[in-house]
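Quick board copy: two proteins, each given as sequence then tokens.
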Amino acid sequence: MTTEDIAALEAQIYAYVGRECGSSTAPDPVNKPMIRHWCEVMGNTNPNHLDEAAASAGKRAELVAPATMLFVWNQTGYAVASTGRPKDPQVELIDLLDAHGYNGIVATDTTQEYFRELRLDDVISQRTVIDNISERKTTGLGEGYFYETVTEFSDQNGEPVGRQTFKVLKFRPAKKDQA
């Protein structure tokens, strides 16, 4: 790519910063069966998540969901694997970078912040935006761009309950040396 091509591509990709990639309200409220399933799979035996009587007698005074379930309530099901993800600005950004040879992708970093524990019957909404895109970088995987999304989570009253950042590298795979 020429310097002009790179500048044109960067003008296009940087225009995605600040764009919303989706929002949703969970189809189901926070509930005991999902908490139990999660805890079973993760090996979590904390009575604050599994035993209403014990949780009620403790400092929380009620059953709460594990904090790490924050992202679970709004996740799409298996159908997205066969039907594909609906077009949104993040999908458009990925497609744009793919079209310019940056077709490798790897998750590099994620963080979650928890503002309060989720209680039974909370209904969780989320909103995701493309927060930032780096300048072009050269990495061991190849040349590319890091981009980060931020997802804000709120309850049925619009009160913030958590936040997640997720960073990926979209890169042009480095050519392997030929022996």
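And the next:
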Amino acid sequence: MKEIANRGKGKTLLISAGIEIMLIICIMAANLNPTPILYFIFYNLLYGLVFSLLIPLYCLYKENGAPASGRVLAEAGFKKLGIRQWGVLAAFVVFSVGGQLIPKMAVGEQIQWHLLPMGIVPLIMTTFFEEFLFRGFVQSRIDRQFGWVPAILVSGAMFSLYHLGYPGFCTWEDILLLFAVGGGFAAAYKLSGNNLIVSFFANLPNAFVTYMLKYEQFPVMSVSSTIAAAVTLVLIGLIFLLYHDFVRYGAHGIRS
């Protein structure tokens, strides 16, 4: 029994490490020659849909056999919000957003508010992939197998290291800062009772503010990136819809 458990732990670490490496490679490839079509293929499709969504969904499905789709999604943190979740969310948003904006505004530094509209849709997409993978998939599995402290550390480390693929986030200072930020999102996920909605909405406002304050470190946000992100979000919805139907009918034999 212990040997089986150890094998499961090793498999979790191996899958997590493999996905992390592929994320970095895909993001580097997307930014190496960032034409719209290549960026869409390497970033939205490969980094996002394949390695951040489809492979985790497949692993969750295999682990749970053929349960109702709601159970698998609950395993990934798709749960209702209660008073506790709203409290955790509010605290983390105020801390992360206020901690960045208030000092800047207090000294009269100009905030690039005009940049935000173009970044909204791409950042919604990227934030979803980050939270589904690093919190809903990796952190939940490691929490069950190793405990909550290693889960938060691994989730935060994976969140920071995957940014090595972005040319603007390659310094040690950035990686250490992102580790602290990722650890914060992981803590929000754990404190909320492993609720993906909480960690997503704790991450998203922080992403908006970080983009406005450090836009030169981000990939260029344009009309094409907004359209590509919108298409990807539609594909995410279709994947979940097809997944639900597959689990409901295909796994138990299609009903006549």
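Board note added afterward: The chain has a mean pLDDT of 90.
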